[in-house]
Amino acid sequence: MEKTLDVQGMSCGHCKASVEGALNKLDGVEEAEANVATGKVNVTFDEAKVNEQALKEAIEEQGYDVQ
Amino acid sequence: MEKTLDVQGMSCGHCKASVEGALNKLDGVEEAEANVATGKVNVTFDEAKVNEQALKEAIEEQGYDVQ
């Protein structure tokens, strides 16, 4: 499944790396791509292994708000 | 010696950490404090061991411009 999340507060390449890194660490996430300019985070994941709530929590743990 | 540098482009806590970390790695730097809101980086250092040019280069290597 592919889903785009709206994330507030990503301001630089470090932020991008921390969000993508946190998502990629989750079992079931196949691809994560964060766009700092738009705040969009595109995630491809296996719904049998991980859900949208877990994706959001992983991002929030890095200190960013998910809309 | 204490010196305040003007740094462009620090936007978040990761930026602060990367600038301070790069400065603290230099022999002769006693203290480094970056303020993301103002762009001011305050450095206390031993002039016998390190000079302002080396401080600026360390910051620039992290991807920020020093005025």
UniProtKB/TrEMBL annotation, chains A, B:
Which SUPFAM superfamilies does this chain map to?
HMA, heavy metal-associated domain
A single Gene Ontology molecular function, please?
Answer: copper ion binding
- Where in or outside the cell is it found? Cytoplasm
Keyword Signal set for record:
no
Keywords in alphabetical order, please: Chaperone, Copper, Cytoplasm, Metal-binding
Gene Ontology CC: cytoplasm
**PROSITE patterns annotated for this entry?**
HMA_1, HMA_2
Q: Which Pfam families match?
A: HMA
Q: Locate the HMA domain: which residues?
A: 1-67
Q: What is this protein called?
A: Copper chaperone CopZ
- The organism is Gracilibacillus halotolerans
